TrEMBL record:
Residues 1-26 form the signal peptide. GO terms for molecular function: calcium ion binding. The lineage of its organism: Eukaryota, Metazoa, Chordata, Craniata, Vertebrata. The chain crosses the membrane at residues 657-682. Potential calcium-dependent cell-adhesion protein. May be involved in the establishment and maintenance of specific neuronal connections in the brain. It comes from the Eukaryota. Residues 74-130, 131-242, 243-347, 388-436, 437-546, 547-644 form the Cadherin domain. It is found in: Cell membrane. One of its GO terms (cellular component) is plasma membrane. This is Cadherin domain-containing protein. Keywords: Calcium, Cell adhesion, Cell membrane, Glycoprotein, Membrane, Repeat, Signal, Transmembrane, Transmembrane helix. It is a single-pass type I membrane protein. It holds the Pfam family Cadherin_2. GO terms for biological process: anatomical structure morphogenesis; homophilic cell adhesion via plasma membrane adhesion molecules. It comes from Neogobius melanostomus (round goby).
Length: 778
């Protein structure tokens, strides 16, 4: 009889035992979970098969299986099946469900074969797994929203609820850039995608770390994770940005080329080329105009050209920063230039009056100057207009010019200055009268002077200049013995030389007092007076010609000879007596110049006779010369000598000794010359017999002055030349005429041109006895 038992253990279900086939087998089926421990009870087969333990032993019950691996073991002593090997459902069946394996329990004597099926139930012993540990992505930050990125699927060896159930995408940080999308393949498998739902920003998050978690449905739930590393690739989505919108700097105008001024700084948060900034002047740059340059890579702005504060006080320009992707930013740069004291003040002359009159009052404005300084502030601090005024009276006579130096300096450090010199001339005003160099002028003049003879000169000085100092000398009228003084002397108005206007005669005029006025040319003129005293000195007028009182009518006293270097009519000379004390006594030969008596000498006749012989030529106009001849009427030679001493008596020779020496010398000379004259006369007589000049039986000693020659016409002797100047009394008008020199007068000529010449002249008179003076006047 077959019995059916049902054994229920924890997990084991014994279905039934069939004894319908005696030889055949009752099939037993157990269900056990996988992964039970070795020795774990699977089921009590003895009981389930209805076999007692003796039968099992006697029948040598054992498990037969075709497999290599025997998962179960039969414990014959207890009649139980226990786990012999770890049973891994996934290994045994993979995805196949349900999963079971079968073996037989074999009994002998009689042989019985009982199949046993053991179903292995799944246990969630496998987590979902990903093939890779990491998933790496490089995604441009410019990736568009909706972009999909396929992710790797996970596997779960478990089946059923223990199999893969879901995916979860997590991020370390709050990340909402990506969402997960799962799709079911037609074969039932799933693939998953990461979809970009919010744009990436490399600049915010250059890397994203996500986790993809796969979970199964088992309990406890198992999961598998894969790390997703996303590198966000840069896109040029950021322009450079200056860290300031306006940069301000100051720079001194003296800064040399290359001086760094400031650095502009723009940053681009992009990387690499997208973040590399280069700087340049913006196209709209204005006043910088080459004064500055910028280093493209660093943004350093430096001086490129000399700056002049006086031209540009401030620069404003724009700088552009550009990344290599072409995005730009601009900033403004303002550079203030600092003044340096590099300009000296400049002096401009607005007006300057030179010369200025010396009588200008104190406070007179001489000039107005304007001072400018191109610098500013302290460096240019100079006041503007200045007037140059006098602060003291001017006097040209003490200071005739001023060099006025004006120095303008600014207040810079160091100060700069400029100098300008003005030459101020003081113009003259007629404020000084001429002043004579002496309070009184006196001079002596020897009588018988030639008219026009310079007597002395007066000098007046005027410290003014030019016309104001141009002194004219004027003879003030004053009387001399009733006749006007101008008849006696004249003054050269230009040089103050006082000349005799006539031949003085001591016997008539002893002295001449007059006032000379010096007057300058100013307007009005200033003048001053000086007194001039001219003393007339007596002169031994001439060496006398002796005429004996007993002389007959026609007695030849002497002969004057004149020569004229002209020829023909112009040299045709005629002699006349110009002045004689007694006209009746002497006459002069018109042609030959012989002076003869024309009547008998009487007692009434003066002892001393003075004859002025004038010789005139026949020229047109006629020229003339005068000679003075002194004649002594005496009885004897000693008388002559006494007369002679008379001439010299009032002279300075009071010394008797000197006088006698001179007298002796005169006598010796007289005798010697007489001899010579006689010899010469004899010779001439023989040579010119036809011309007997005289015949006398009287004891007359013809007397000739030294160097006198009784020759006519062509004969010449060594002479003293006399160049005299004749002046009109009106010679102030500078009407000066120079005389033709009387080149070869035959009569010795005394030179009384100067006061001091008197002594010498006196001596020569003593030796010659005859002195003649020709003055060639026109
Ligand atoms: C630019 O400015 C930023 C901050 O303003 C600074 O960190 C950086 O170093 C500057 N760059 C240069 C080149 O000076
Ligand atoms: C901008 O950059 C410049 C240069 O590096 C720096 O001198 C300046 O201080 C910065 N300005 C600011 C506001 O950071
Ligand atoms: C003024 O300067 C000029 C030119 O240098 C010079 O010739 C003159 O002598 C100076 N005058 C005075 C008074 O210093
Ligand atoms: C100079 O003298 C004249 C007359 O002799 C007189 O009229 C005049 O006033 C005098 N002048 C001076 C400055 O003394």
């Amino acid at each position: 009889m077959a019995s059916l038992r049902s054994i229920c253990t924890n997990d084991v279900v014994v279905f039934f035992l069939m004894s319908f086939f005696i030889q055949s087998d009752a099939q037993i089926r157990y269900s056990i979970p996988e992964e039970m421990r070795k020795g774990s009870l699977i089921g009590n087969v003895a009981q389930d098969l209805g076999l007692d333990l003796k039968r099992l032993r006697s029948g040598r019950a054992r498990i037969v299986t075709g497999e290599n691996v025997q998962y179960a073991e039969l414990k014959t002593d207890k009649g139980t099946l226990v786990v012999n090997e770890r049973i891994d459902r996934e290994q045994l069946c993979g995805d196949v469900t349900p999963c079971s394996f079968t073996f037989e329990i074999l009994l002998e004597n009689p042989m019985e074969l009982h199949p046993v099926t053991i179903e292995v139930l799944d246990v969630n012993d496998n987590a979902p797994t990903f093939q890779s540990k990491h998933l790496d992505f490089e995604i441009s930050e410019s990736a568009t929203i909706g972009s999909r990125f396929v992710l790797e699927s996970a596997d779960d060896a478990d089946v059923g609820v223990n199999g893969l159930k879901d995916y979860i995408l997590t991020a370390n940080t709050a990340n909402d850039n990506f969402v997960l999308k799962q799709h079911l393949n037609p074969d039932g498998s799933r693939y998953i995608q990461m979809v970009l739902q919010n744009a990436l920003d490399r600049e915010k998050e250059p890397r994203l770390n996500l986790k993809l978690v796969a979970v199964d449905g088992g309990s406890p739930q198992r999961s598998g994770t894969v790390h997703i590393n996303i590198v966000v690739l840069d896109a040029n989505d950021n322009a450079p940005v200056f860290n300031q919108s306006i940069y301000k700097a100051t720079v001194s105008e003296s800064s040399s080329k290359g001086t760094d001024i400031l650095t502009v700084n723009a940053t681009d948060i992009d990387v690499d080329a997208n973040g590399q900034v280069s700087y340049s002047f913006s196209k709209s740059k204005t006043s910088a105009a080459g004064f500055f340059e910028i280093q493209p890579s660093t943004g350093v702005i430096f001086v490129a050209k000399e700056i002049d504060f006086e031209k540009d006080k401030k620069f404003e320009f724009w700088i552009e920063a550009k990344d290599h992707g072409g995005l730009t930013d601009t900033c403004k740069v303002e550079i203030d230039i600092i003044d340096v004291n590099d300009n000296a003040p400049v002096i401009n002359v607005m007006s300057f009056s030179s010369p200025v009159s010396e009588d200008s009052p104190v406070g007179t404005t001489i000039g107005i100057i304007n001072v400018k300084d191109l610098d500013s502030g302290e460096n240019g601090q100079v006041r503007n207009y200045y007037a140059l005024v006098t602060n003291a009276p001017l006097d040209r006579e003490s200071v005739s010019e001023f060099n006025i130096t004006v120095i303008a300096s600014d207040s810079g450090k160091p100060p700069l200055s400029v100098k300008k010199t003005f030459n101020l001339k003081i113009s003259d005003v007629n404020d000084n009268a001429p002043v004579f160099t002496r309070a009184l002028y006196s001079a002596t003049i020897t009588e018988n002077n030639s008219p026009g003879l310079s007597v002395l000169s007066v000098v007046a000085k005027d410290p003014d200049e030019n016309q104001n100092a141009r002194v004219s000398y004027i003879l003030e009228e004053c009387d001399i013995g009733g006749s006007p003084v101008s008849g006696y002397i004249s003054v050269n108005s230009d040089n103050g030389v006082i000349s005799a206007a006539r031949s003085f005669d001591y016997e008539q005029t002893k002295q001449c007092l007059c006032v000379i006025k010096a007057q300058d040319g100013g307007s009005p003129p200033l003048s001053s007076n000086v007194t001039v005293k001219i003393l007339v000195q007596d002169q031994n007028d001439n060496g006398p010609q002796m005429v004996p009182r007993s002389a007959d009518v026609g007695y030849l006293v002497t002969k004057v000879v004149a020569v004229d270097v002209d020829s023909g009519q112009n040299a045709w000379l005629s002699y006349k007596l110009q002045k004689a004390a007694d006209r009746a006594l002497f006459e002069v030969g018109l042609q030959n110049g012989e002076i003869r008596t024309i009547r008998q000498v009487t007692d009434k006749d003066a002892v001393k006779q003075r004859l002025a012989v004038i010789v005139e030529d026949n020229g047109q106009p006629s020229r003339s010369a005068t000679v003075i001849v002194n004649v002594v009427v005496a009885d004897s030679f000693p008388e002559v000598m006494s007369e002679f001493t008379d001439f010299t008596h009032d002279k300075e020779y009071n010394d008797n000794l000197t006088f006698y020496l001179v007298l002796a010398l005169a006598v010796v000379s007289f005798l010697f010359i007489t001899c010579v004259v006689v010899i010469i006369s004899v010779k001439i007589y023989r040579w010119r017999q036809s011309r007997v000049l005289y015949h006398s039986n009287l004891p007359v000693i013809p007397y000739y002055p030294p160097r006198y020659s009784d020759t006519l016409g062509t004969a010449t002797l060594p002479h003293v030349y006399n160049y005299d100047t004749c002046r009109t009394t009106d010679s102030r008008k500078s009407d000066i005429k120079y005389m033709q020199p009387m080149s070869q007068s035959l009569v010795s000529v005394d030179d009384v041109g100067t006061e001091s010449a008197l002594n010498g002249q006196q001596r020569s008179t003593a030796s010659t006895l005859v002195t003649s003076h020709f003055t060639n006047c026109k």
